[in-house]
Amino acid sequence: ANAGEKIQACINDLPEIGGVCDARGLTDAQTIGNLDCNKPAEILLGAGVYSVTTLNISAIGCSVRGVSPNKSILLTTSPVADVIVISTGASLFHLADLEIQVRVGSDRTASVLKALDGQGMISNVRIVGWPNYNNGKIFTHDTAAAGNWVYNHILVPGGVKWTYLFHLQEPSGGTVGSIHVSDSLISGTITWSDAGIIMDTGVDTFTVV
């Protein structure tokens, strides 16, 4: 079994109230592929490069935590798969202490994180793109529920091309909600094919401190 299958088995074995899936012993080069956090699991990653397709967050209270951004790396090579998807009905997600690396051989159309529901925190995360291609979208917030998110200590190095950093998309008949960004460093040498931050007219609050 690969790392993803082992972590999925751990999540499936947890009680309904959730628990910890400690995968810190799965180090070096590992394959996760597709993973569904369908219970309130705290997934702990070790020092390694974890190849992922999509981490689907379908339960309230899931979290993914690494050792540090220079030791725990989620690697995607897919030009079309969102790396992390917060499904409708899931909230209170926490992502921390790791790097997400995009390594593509063609322009990418997907997001690093796509939130279809609200309330979450992203902290101490580095987002690294691949030269020569558009690395796609970084943070996409969609539908009325995808608000009340906190981003703290986000690092995005330059010299690469992305579609956008944030797109807060107005849902039909609603508002996106509140996004708060603090203590983050976004390189001034990034090329944005659309814009750094895109806010539709339904956005409630966007703060940067």
Note poorly predicted spans. none
Shape: globular
Biggest sheet layout = 17 strands, parallel
Indicate the mean pLDDT. Answer: 92
Q: Radius of gyration in whole Å, from Cα? A: 16 Å
- Strand content is over 45%
- State the total count of DSSP E strands: 19
Task: Give the structural class.
Answer: mainly beta
Structural features, described:
The model has no long low-confidence stretch (mean pLDDT 92). This protein has one helix at 3-13; strands spanning 19-23, 28-37, 41-45, 48-57, 63-65, 72-76, 84-86, 93-102, 111-115, 120-128, 137-141, 149-156, 161-162, 164-168, 178-182, 185-186, 191-192, 197-199, 205-208. The chain has a 17-stranded parallel sheet that branches. The protein has a two-stranded parallel sheet with strand order 13-17. It is mainly beta and 209 residues long. It starts with a helix and ends with a strand. The chain is built from 1 helix and 19 strands. Helix content is 5%, strand content 48%.
